[in-house]
Amino acid sequence: MKILAIESATASSSIALGEDRHIVASARRVDRRGHVGFLVPAIDFCFSQAGWSPDDIDVVAVDVGPGLFTGIRAGLATAQALAGAIGVPLVPVLSLDALALRAATGRRRIWAVVDTRRGELAVGPYQPAPGGVVRDGPAELVTPHGLRGLLESDSSDVLVVGDWAALPEGTLRGLHGVRTGRPRYPDAGAVLEVAHGKAERDEIPRPDEVRPQYMREPDVDINWSDFRSEGPWAK
Amino acid sequence: MSDTPLILGIETSCDETGIAVVRGRQVLSNVLSSQVDLHSRFGGVVPEVAARAHVEAIRTLTHRALAQAGVHQRDLDAVAATQGPGLAGALMVGFSYGKALSWALDRPFIGIDHMEGHLFAHLIDHESYKPPAIVLLASGGHSQIVHMRDWGDYEVVGSTIDDAAGEAFDKLARYLGLGFPGGPAIDRESEEGDPATVRFPRALPDRPYDFSFSGLKTSVTTYVRKHHAAGDLPPIPDIAASIQEAIVDVLVTKTFNAVEATGVRLVAGGGGVLANRRLRERLTAEGRERGVEVLLPSRVLCTDNGAMIGAAGIYRFGLGEITSPGAEVDSSLRLGS
Ligand SMILES: [Zn+2]
Questions:
Q1: Of A37, B93, B193, B280, which one has the fewest beta carbons inside 10 Å?
Q2: What residues of B are in contact with residue A39 (Cβ under 8 Å)?
């Protein structure tokens, strides 16, 4: 099974091409901006490295978040167009799942953390399992303080992976049994692996079911409140 | 590749997801997913809401546009998508989609200036449309007067120094409690009103081609407050018609100022505000009086759509202009610079 994986849901963006779980080409850069300019050249680069053509691909995998809204959409729009043009399924992967998969731990419980900005984090707990990890609790959006609370009430030994470096200083200080580790960002190789598992289990949604996982309602702060209450016709 | 190229046009710069298949001057399909209902409860276009809706709609809409045109994606000669100006997050959706599609199909990709798209929309409706022309572009996001000296040779002779014309309509319609989008709402309300009821000031009289609409809001609110207090406030249709007249008057006057200054004998218009009944009337009448031809696109082609991007794409493709796959969107792209 030949897979093209696209990841641009965080400050990092990456592309991976692989046969089953074996990565044959990849490209990556870390920059909060510039996902739109990076993706297609990186895809082109990977295909020429691998000596593949688009029609060789069986599955397109994409990180659908949570993470940075514009990055999620750039990745998903790219993946939608490619899957549609090639005529293959599109498999969505959660950024937290991809992060946790690469967490280097033998036995510790994993908390994957993605910075969604505006003082909030998407987090999810995972348990190491043969050949990967299993999420054993809900993915949720919390404040740094909320994350500390979650970790305090987790009695197991814990490894925090993801963008913990972006947390306010002291957020994790003095927590018992908590360690921090890599990776900082999800990468397309991990997205590819998660998607491969899903495709093998036939967990392939309809194309219109593949949607961004923002985990947050849009900010609709429009600066017209002054007009709302002023006129004699105001409700 | 045939002599008349077949191009997919993608437009996602604001609140309409527009996809079209265009061959030469012929529009084979032009599908639109309007977000008006989504934004109306906020009283304006919310960028994040717009971007979300684009990514939900673009795949299905592209398939629909191809199916309606009766063409297979492999038949396309190129893919064109709006690069700017517009809302960055919204632009990124169509631009990313277009780039990836063109890459997978191994066809050229062309990033289009949204304003040039508006300039090319006329090609679809009007055989006689050709430069030189003075083009009034007015919508919720833009208000400018463009001197199109030749294809691809544009000079922006005037623009708004604050709000866009469509924005002025939106804010004032909201103030009058008429809902969103404001242009059509005020247009409708004005039908029963007398435009001579109040003469709201026309801004920037000494700058012949530039617009300013933010002062109008203040004049209207001041007027309403005063007359509401005095108990002699005219009915809403009269106020709406007077507001509309003030905006339209400025747009028409400055457009024809540019006509006089350049000696150009053709006027055209684009953008959502050009769907305004009174503006169309006044532009046509003014043209007739001065012996200047006035071409107005159909209402469908006035508002943002994929066909206008496809039409501009045909032109750019003909010049052999191709946009790098590494290009970014440019939300502040300026026509003619
Ligand atoms: Zn427009």
A1: B280
A2: 96, 99-100
Q: Is B73 in Cβ contact with A85 (below 8 Å)?
A: yes
**pLDDT by residue (tens digit) across A106-149?**
789 999 999 998 899 999 999 999 888 999 999 999 999 999 99
What percentage of chain B reaches a pLDDT higher than 90? 85
Entry pTM: 0.94
CB-based contacts of A169: which residues, under 8 Å, 6+ apart? none
Q: Which fold has domain A103-181?
A: Nucleotidyltransferase; domain 5 (3.30.420)
Q: Residue B229 corresponds to which amino acid?
A: A
Bridge-partner residues for B112, per DSSP? B82
Q: Give me the residues of B, 93-152, that contact A with CB < 8 A.
A: 93-101, 103-105
CATH 3.30.420.40 domain position(s) in chain A? 2-94+186-229, 103-181
A85 touches chain B (CB under 8 A): yes
Chain position carrying tokens 């530039």: B210
CB contact under 8 A, A224 and B48: no
What is the distance between the alpha carbons of residues B259 and B267, in angstroms, rounded to a whole number? Answer: 8
Tell me the CATH architecture of domain A2-94+186-229: 2-Layer Sandwich (3.30)
For B211-242, what is each residue's pLDDT tens digit? 999 999 999 999 999 999 999 999 999 999 99
